Amino acid sequence: MSDTIDDVVARLTRLEDLEAIRHTWRDYCMRLDSADWSALGDVFTEDAVLEMDGLDHLIEGLDGQYCGRQTIINDFYRQTGSVLPHGAKPLFVTGHLSTNMQIELQGDEATTLAYFFEIVANDRVLIGTYQHRLRREADRWRFRFLRIAIRYRARLEATDVGGQSLNDILSRPV
Q: Is residue 49 a contact partner of residue 70, using CB atoms and an 8 Å limit?
């Protein structure tokens, strides 16, 4: 093998960047599902843009663009976590299964496409895509753009809904 040390360092750096991008995505899902709004803000750049497409059927007025970290958290995420459709009880509100992340890395910028499956308000299922543009900042990779597009939605026949919140699970030592 004729790799130079520079080739090895470049490959290692790429692998570390790909893993750091996946880590940002996992942080997003965990912080969203545990309603940790200040920590959720940390995955966005200060000037980030979030574009929502497909939630107006659930709560009118949520579709559109949200510009800036504070607006994204306060005007979008805090609203989706506190305003529930049709009198739903705030038992678990959200839980994500995110898969199939495709990452295109170009220096200090990256774009991704990922799928999600989400249970919302205990009796709704949403399936859609996340499209991210990320930027490397001094301490981590962050979303500078996030498009959430709902591709499929349905109401579930849910009775006797119960279980544990993510926060309850995470509060117990391993």
A: no
